[in-house]
TrEMBL record:
Taxonomy, superkingdom: Bacteria
TM region(s), chain numbering: 40-56, 76-97, 103-125
Keyword Transmembrane helix among UniProt keywords: yes
Protein name according to UniProt: Histidine kinase
Pfam families reported for this sequence: His_kinase (PF06580)
InterPro entries named among the record's database cross-references: Bact_2-comp_sensor_kinase, Sig_transdc_His_kin_internal
Species name: Siphonobacter curvatus
GO cellular component: membrane
The entry's keywords: Kinase, Membrane, Transferase, Transmembrane, Transmembrane helix
Length: 337
């Protein structure tokens, strides 16, 4: 992406120069009779010099590679010396037009004015560039942050536990060897799940109906492994079904349930998906596996990052002795900024 170039608008250059030219003639207003010719010539000389200082400083401003944040003493001195020469020439022009004025005092006044204008414009230009640099640093930091989140989000969208595929293939092998009548359906559900993975990997959000549909395919694959050891109930209104959700959010949460809890015929794991106020809730009974290593919460942090990145909302995690629940903000609409 091409970097923006530091510029000062012509409108600002001309307006500031005109304002200075008018201010330089203010002392003449107090004189009686009012010297109109002197006021006009004085204003024109100031205008020409102010424009010269603006454009000289802009065109001699160091390029992006050599530009520094601090003052350039060399640049300022060069501008002052050249300004003295230009002001001397303008003072001579003024003397030719207004031959009745005394050249010495006028020359001193004109040169002093030139130095003040030169220093003032250089300082102003430096402040403008400082502001520009600060703005660009802020933009760059936001871009880096956005790129980092995009890269992280891209990984999250493609996150499907490889152990799930390994376990599913082992389950399929067992089903085929035992000539299970559900083998073909298992293959179709597994195919649907991975087709969904490929189709959704580049999407930020998908309809909740699509996510619930794939969860049913995912549940079928889990039941092939755990049979009646796992149970999932869904209670979501039709309006909420038309809301949006990041792909694989429910899949990751259900996967976490089976990963951290006992799933068996003797102790079935019950998972519930329902809505509560402005949240979609995924809830499961707590039945920790023996020797279970403490969770790193990375899966929940990943999901939270997705919500923060996409809609600037956070998920809620609640837990007591019996139940663990994750509350996902319901996303009614979304527009990518």
């Amino acid at each position: 992406m091409k970097k923006p170039i530091f510029k000062v608008s012509r409108r600002m250059i001309w307006l500031s120069s005109l304002l200075l030219s008018l201010l330089s003639s203010v002392p003449k207003i107090a004189e009686r009779p009012f010297p109109l010719a002197e006021a006009v010539v004085n204003s024109m000389i100031t205008l020409v010099f102010a424009l010269f200082v603006w454009y000289y400083n802009l065109y001699s401003f160091p390029d992006e590679k050599n530009r520094t944040i601090g003052f350039s003493v060399r640049h300022l001195v060069m501008s002052l010396l050249l300004g003295l020469v230009v002001m001397f020439v303008l003072a001579c022009v003024q003397q030719l037009i207004l031959s009745h004025i005394h050249f010495g005092p006028v020359m001193l006044m004109v040169e002093t004015r030139g130095i003040l204008i030169n220093v003032m414009f250089y300082m102003f230009l430096h402040l403008l560039y400082q502001s520009y640099q600060t703005q660009q640093v802020g933009v760059e930091l936001e871009r880096i942050k956005s790129d980092h989140l995009e890269a992280q989000f891209e990984l999250l969208r493609q996150q499907v536990n490889p152990h799930f595929l390994f376990n599913s293939l082992n389950t399929l092998k067992s089903m085929v060897e035992s000539e299970d009548e559900h083998s073909v359906e298992f293959i179709l559900k597994l195919s649907d799940f991975y087709r969904y993975t490929l189709e959704s990997r580049k999407l930020d959000l998908i309809p909740l109906t699509d996510e619930l549909e794939i969860i049913q395919s995912y549940l079928f694959l889990l039941k092939a492994r755990f049979d009646a050891g796992i149970d999932l109930t869904t209670q979501v209104s039709e309006a909420t079904q038309h809301s949006l959700i990041p792909p694989f959010t429910l899949q990751l949460l259900v996967e976490n349930c089976t990963k951290h809890n006992v799933v068996s015929l003797e102790k079935p794991l019950h998972i519930r998906i329902y809505e509560e106020s402005d949240f979609l809730v995924v809830e499961n009974d707590i039945q920790i596996k023996r020797g279970q290593v403490a969770s790193t919460k990375m899966g929940l942090e990943n999901i939270n990052t997705r919500y923060t990145h996409l809609v600037e909302q956070t998920i809620r995690v609640e837990s007591d002795t019996d139940v663990f629940r994750v509350k996902l903000p319901i996303i009614a609409s979304y527009s990518r900024s």
